[in-house]
Automatic annotation (TrEMBL):
The lineage of its organism: Bacteria, Bacillati, Actinomycetota, Actinomycetes, Pseudonocardiales. The keyword Repressor does not apply. This is Glycosyltransferase. Residues 244-417 form the Glycosyl transferase family domain. It comes from the Bacteria.
Length: 854
């Protein structure tokens, strides 16, 4: 049986790091892997455990976790606790110790050999390294990197290692200087290995890691996760208070932590002194730091709280028959406290445990508190150590009030519990690990279809069926990635049921907490890209495909798209989109406005390739990765940041701007759901289908009530067409040649524009780019201004070419903005510049509006 090998650099039987290992390892155990954990006694020098045999540690862990060790480490000449301490002090902390470096290299090589032998003996298939980057023992870290390369090469493995850093130099006691200073020259930087996938606890840790090691490409965010189950008093733990001498009605403050100076348990003792009716339970090993334990007991005696403090020793992280665990303590606790040092903690697991158990919490505003909890909206009583070293009277009063206000505690706990399930629920870990290692991608898969979903329960069966019933392509050749974007209607359950009923099509469900179709599409593309890199056969092109959950794809949609991408060199393939005419049989004026827009698009996309629309496009994975994937722009609406809607267009612009080609695939067709028109028709007529004043947002098009309405009046139809064509022309006629002026040398493009117009457009584009001093035209606020300017300058001539090419019913340009009507002709271009210069944030945006919903 294959195994998961874990190594913790924490060198302690129970800690937040070990608890997180157990949660992650459970997923591997459920798939039948043996699980081994090396507690790291032979790694750290400050725990006094070097080479000590394991004793009762296994009793603190689930019975499916076996304690592991690298045999023979104690026989390596020169490798012992004193050597590790000297390297940390002299090489890492002081930047010296040159005489130690030859021994570091020699010992690391010998260690690496022993690690490989151990992994071979246990048939290790996966490795989970916890905290290996923290330079407590750079010799061991170096050895691990060498062992990973050798073992991965021998076994022909892909990314079989998950390397997770809970603490890093900038998160763990940076003020002490024990790890040196940025850029930490003595610390082994993370290796961009084909065998390692790095995991950061949050985006800030990921950002800082990449700042230090920008060469990394395989690094994702995996927050610590917590099983969201309310801790309750039941018959199995009813005797907890009695067993520890805590009165049944006394307010109980719980502190689950190691008893070491950095944890600042003395703060809880001072808090307790101000609340004489409360008790404090400290769960931690009193023998880990005897000096600190003696200091704390002395503080408790001095403050007169000794009889109300329980040092309860280690509590198992899970329920164990006959032993009390952390959840038993949480079931009896009134609040959980975490008054830790400012610069010691990186995540603050006790807060997460409290949130998941439905218990209110107190905390210091330690360095990363707001990054992990406060900034996400979690509520607790927070002590700011910047105001003083010990809790002040105001903080003590706040805590006392909370202890005696049951309604407030319930409200706080319920708010946090709901928020915690979204941010730290175990599903997020399952989804990420499934993507990275647990379910390797089949070698036959060449395409991943990404489907963002938000409350689409009614549409999903038909959409998924249309994806399942694709013709001309084997189901083993593609997979479906559904991104659940906080649905509340059971959409994810519909997908999972469909997947169970159709096992011959691979379907994944991943979650994205940040609301917005753009965010969901980005997550799905990243998910598929990362998984696809694990395929052994990397010579074939791999494609990421976008679809929308409210649209229906034609039976040949995917096969036509795949064929076009395989036969050409384009980076993006853009589908054709259409409405079913019968759905507009009673609305001929509306249908006329729609079909005219679609006819224009067919002509221009055939010329220029078009731009991707989320309803259906494919992109070469390597190009997707090279340009940075889907990028989300943010804008302010009512004083709050919201994600910009145009992620698909922006992505296409970045791809085209990078020199890649886009191809139009008219035989790959997607039927648009008419509700997009039915519930936004008033906005289309008014020119604000996706917002106004520069704010581009998606309106919910699923309100209750009948879909189809009455036909438009002649005036409404005229207004709808004018806004539709004003939205269409800058984006679909001008923007392609603005981004790729060489298109104006193409014979078909010259024929469309006529030679004279093509020549003048090219000259004017060069002048505007030079005038605006722009090299990069890809951000949305950059490309719209010149597109609008060129439209207003050339509208009459461009419409003449559309009439000649598409049909006379395209008509003439809509009336100019009133402010331009009286501008002298010789100054027209000058005043157009002033009009458009505010990018999207004013009159120009409102004039062009957004009729693009057609």
């Amino acid at each position: 049986m294959t195994s998961l090998w874990g190594v913790s650099f924490d060198a302690t039987p129970i800690s937040g790091v070990v608890v997180e290992f157990v949660k992650t390892a459970r997923l591997f155990a459920d798939q039948g892997h043996d699980v081994f954990l090396d507690l790291g006694y032979d790694v750290k020098s400050d725990k006094g455990e070097f080479f000590r045999p394991y004793g009762e540690e296994a009793a603190l862990l689930p019975d499916w976790v076996r304690l592991g060790r690298i045999a023979g480490v104690d026989r390596i000449a020169g490798y012992d606790r004193n050597f590790v301490a000297a390297v940390l002090r002299d090489v890492v902390g002081r930047g010296g110790g040159v005489h130690l470096l030859p021994d570091v290299a020699r010992i690391a090589a010998e260690l690496a050999e022993l690690v490989v032998v151990t992994w071979e003996r246990h048939d290790v298939e996966f490795v989970l390294v916890e905290n290996g980057t923290l330079p407590e023992n750079i010799t061991y870290t170096t050895a691990l990197y060498q062992a990973i390369e050798e073992y991965g090469r021998r076994r022909g493995l892909g990314r079989f290692v998950l390397w997770r850093d809970h603490d890093l130099m900038w998160q763990s006691e940076p003020g002490s200087g024990k790890y040196g200073e940025f850029p930490y020259p003595a610390t082994p930087r993370p290796v961009a290995s084909p065998h390692i996938h790095y995991l950061a606890l949050h985006e800030e840790a990921r950002r800082r890691t990449l700042e230090w090691a920008p060469h990394l490409t395989a690094i994702d965010v995996l927050p610590n996760t917590f099983p969201c189950r309310r801790a309750t008093v039941d018959p199995r733990n009813a005797g907890f208070r009695l067993a520890y001498g805590i009165p049944p009605d006394a307010p109980l403050i719980a502190r689950c932590t190691r008893i070491i100076p950095q944890k600042r348990i003395d703060r809880e003792l001072h808090l307790l002194a101000g609340i004489p009716e409360a008790y404090l339970f400290v769960a931690g090993d009193a023998e880990e730091s005897p000096a600190e334990f003696r200091r704390l007991t002395a503080v408790a005696e001095r403050l007169g709280v000794t009889d109300r403090v329980v040092f309860g020793g280690w509590l198992a992280p899970q329920e164990t028959s006959g032993h009390y665990g952390v959840r038993d303590l949480l079931a009896h606790a009134t609040v959980v406290s975490f008054l830790t040092s400012y610069d010691y903690e990186s995540y603050g697991n006790p807060i997460g445990e409290a949130i998941a158990a439905g218990v209110p919490y107190l905390t210091t505003r330690y360095q990363l508190y707001d990054t992990v909890y406060g900034g996400k909206g979690f509520r607790g009583v927070v002590f700011d150590p910047a105001t003083g070293d010990l809790p002040d009277r105001d903080f003590v009063d706040q805590v006392r009030d909370l202890l005696h206000d049951e309604e407030r505690r319930t409200d706080m706990a319920e708010h946090n519990y709901r928020l915690g399930a979204r941010h730290f629920g175990q599903d997020s870990a399952v989804e990420l690990l499934d993507r990275l290692v647990l379910t390797p991608m089949d070698e036959r898969v060449r395409l991943s279809v990404v489907l963002p979903v938000y409350n689409e329960r009614a549409n999903l069966p038909e959409v998924l069926t249309s994806l399942y019933e694709q013709r001309g392509i084997d189901r083993a050749c593609y997979e479906v990635v559904v991104v659940d974007n906080n649905s509340t209607d059971g959409s994810a359950d519909v997908v999972r049921r469909f997947a169970r009923e159709h096992p011959d099509l691979t379907v994944h469900v991943v979650a994205e907490q940040e609301q917005g179709v753009s965010c969901a599409r980005r997550t799905g593309m990243r998910f598929a890209s990362v998984r696809s890199h694990g395929r052994v056969n990397g010579a074939e092109r791999f494609y990421l495909v976008s679809a929308d959950a409210d649209c229906r794809v034609d039976p040949d949609w995917l096969a036509e798209l795949f064929t076009a991408m395989e036969s050409g060199k384009a980076a993006i393939g853009v589908c054709d989109y259409y409405y079913a005419p019968e759905r507009f049989a009673d609305r001929p004026r509306l249908w006329d406005a729609i079909i005219r827009t679609l006819r224009c698009r067919h002509v221009t996309w055939a010329l220029f390739g078009g731009f991707p629309d989320g309803k259906g496009f494919a992109v070469d994975r390597d190009v997707h990765d090279r340009v940075g994937g889907i990028e989300i722009f943010y804008q302010l609406r009512d004083g709050r940041f919201v994600s910009h809607l145009s992620d698909d267009w922006d992505f296409g612009i970045r791809v085209r701007g990078s020199g890649e080609e886009i191809t139009y695939v008219p035989r790959s067709r997607v039927e648009i759901n008419p509700r997009r028109v039915d519930h936004t028709i008033e906005e289309v007529i008014a020119g604000r289908a996706y917002g106004s004043d520069g704010i581009i947002v998606m309106r919910d098009v699923r309100p209750p009530g009948a879909l189809a309405g009455a036909d438009l009046t002649e005036e409404e139809a005229r207004q709808a067409w004018e806004f539709s064509i004003k939205d269409f022309t800058p984006k679909n006629v001008i923007l392609p040649v603005l981004l790729t002026p060489s298109l104006l040398d193409d014979d078909a493009v010259i024929e469309f524009f006529t030679p004279g117009l093509a020549e003048r457009l090219g000259r004017r584009i060069a002048e505007i780019i030079d005038e605006m001093r722009m090299i990069d035209l890809t951000p949305i606020h950059s490309y719209k201004t010149p597109s609008y300017r060129l439209y207003l300058e050339f509208a009459d001539e461009i419409f003449a070419r559309l009439r000649a090419t598409v049909g006379e019913d395209i008509g003439y340009p809509p009336p100019l903005p009133p402010c331009l009507a009286d501008v002298p002709p010789e100054r027209f271009a000058e005043f157009v510049r002033y009009y458009c210069e505010d990018r999207e944030s004013g009159e120009a945006h409102n004039y062009f509006g957004n009729g693009g919903v057609f």
